[in-house]
Amino acid sequence: MSPRNTSLTMVLATGNAGKVKDFQLLLEASPLDIDLKSMQSFGGMPEVHESETTFAGNAHLKALAARSKLPTHSAFWVLADDSGLSVDALDGAPGVQSARFAGEHATDAENREKLLSKLQGVEGALRRAFFTCHLCLIAPDGTRYDFVGKRVGHIANAAKGSRGFGYDSLFIPEGETQTWGELPESTKNAHSHRGNAVQQMLDWLSSVTPPQ
Q1: Phi/psi at 148 (nearest 5 deg)?
Q2: What is the pLDDT of residue 153?
Q3: Which of 32, 209, 210, 211 places its Cα 20 to 30 Å from the Cα of 166?
Q4: What residues are annotated to the active site?
Q5: Judging by DSSP bridges, how do beta strands 34-38 and 8-12 pair with one another?
């Protein structure tokens, strides 16, 4: 029986409420019957030391950490995401350090403030940036699957808009004149790095028989 005809329970390996909301919206738009649960249902997301130097590595660490808290032999799928912003003028920074750019426990506002300070005096094409989303999906039998999405744009001169989280209010996607903080969530989700990666995952789930 394929996932299209099967209700899949998927646990999202994050403690970030913004990410949970994003994924809920993306999965609700899918014809697949996916019951998305947050780690709050299992005592919260364990702390993960993101020691890898790639999005793929850190996504895998988070997926394994979440899976370790689930009931043994459960039929749950585990989905972890590691995403980040890379800026040309900063040689790809903040990259995998995006959530910790201004320090280990930095707030979104502090990270945005540091990014803007680093880009003072930088104009034009050097403000080009792109978001990367790496999804690590672990099936109930422990098999790992990976999906990657990207979205190119540039960094605004100041934060604009209150939607989203992280660097959304600074990022103007290619083809738009407003930041993700200003654009409707439906527009962002349809064309974002995360939306792209999730669509790849959904297309794959639609075409295979899930391992049990």
Answers
A1: -130, 130
A2: 97
A3: 32
A4: 82
A5: parallel
Closest of 171, 200, 201, 203 to residue 187, by C-alpha: 171
For the chain, the three-class secondary structure string (H helix, E strand, C coil) is CCHHHCCEEEEECCCCHHHHHHHHHHHHCCCCCEEEEEHHHHCCCCCCCCCCCCHHHHHHHHHHHHHCCCCCCCCCEEEEEEEEEEEHHHCCCEHHHHHHCCCCCCCHHHHHHHHHHHCCCCCHHHHEEEEEEEEEEECCCCCEEEEEEEEEEEECCCCCCCCCCCCHHHEEECCCCCCCCCCCHHHHHHHCHHHHHHHHHHHHHHHCCCCC
Mean pLDDT for 99-111 is 93
For 167, counting Cβ atoms within 10 Å of its Cβ (0-12 exposed, 13-18 middle, 19+ buried), the class is buried
CB neighbour class for 114 (10 Å; exposed up to 12, middle 13-18, buried from 19):
middle
**Tens of pLDDT, residues 70-81:** 988 789 999 999
Two tokens, residue 73: 């032999």
User: What are 141's two structure tokens?
Assistant: 């039998």
* Residue 209 confidence class, pLDDT cut points 50, 70, 90: low
Digit-coded pLDDT (tens) for 107-117: 999 999 999 99
For residue 109, what are the contacts with CB-CB under 8 A and spacing of at least 6? none
Length of the chain: 212
Question: Which residue, chain included where needed, has tokens 């049990």?
Answer: 212
Q: Which amino acid is at 98?
A: S
